[in-house]
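Our working data are protein records whose layout never changes between entries. Instead of coordinates, the fold is spelled out as a row of discrete tokens. Here is such a record, shown just as it appears in the course material:
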Amino acid sequence: MDIISTKEVAEVLGVSEATVKRWADAGTLKCFRTVGGHRKFRLRDVREFLGGQMIARESLDVLHASADPPTHEQVEARTLALSSDVDGLVSLIANERMKGQSLAHVFDDVIAPAMSSIGEAWAAGKLTTAQEHVASNALIEAIARVRPLVERPSRHDRGRAICTCIGDEQHDIGVRVVGLILSAEGFRTSMLGGNVPTTDIALMVASEQPALVALSASGHANLDRLRSDVAIVAGAAAASKTRVLAGGHGFARLPSVPSNVSRFFKLQEFVTLLREPKT
């Protein structure tokens, strides 16, 4: 039949019923109501919504082709990001937190796989650069809106933390999430973001002597440049006794890092490092 329910639309789109209702109430997805007040949808309107939001169903193949089948939450996060539904992304993160999941878990196991699939779909030519930018900016805005909701621990202030990409790195979503985690762990964070000259980072570390520096580098980083950049920051950090934690695919590709730099590969590992007693 041409008429389907909210539940059936949610199953088709891979999102929650609450998300479908929000789209319908906002007028983003056309619907009509029965005499009893129930939302109903025409298939042609759902197809038009998919096309209008530029979410090609075949682009989900990248996510579904992964070694592990995607979870409902991963598919929903991907769809929300591509739809530029910031409210939906914030709600998804909040709902996972209400289930007892840590912020690190939500980003490691839900958001990161969804965003990786978007990047892979873009690389395969199944999504345009514009679509990839829409998804990335939706997530950046969602992170900013989640930040005020993060509960700071009651324990004492753990000091200042500088969060920055290194060298000419411009992909700063990862370091923004790291900043969110640091706030939840009791640090006062300063976000430098992407494309920051390494000498400027080193000068800030040397002059302000923060408790911690969190570095991020994507897999696109030039390894020779990255090796040189991290050595400069590590030298400044050693002189000021500042702890350095480095994450991202770029650092994973380096054969080694300075002895005073600790690498992490998932945010849950990052939290473990943060909670280790000082040596």
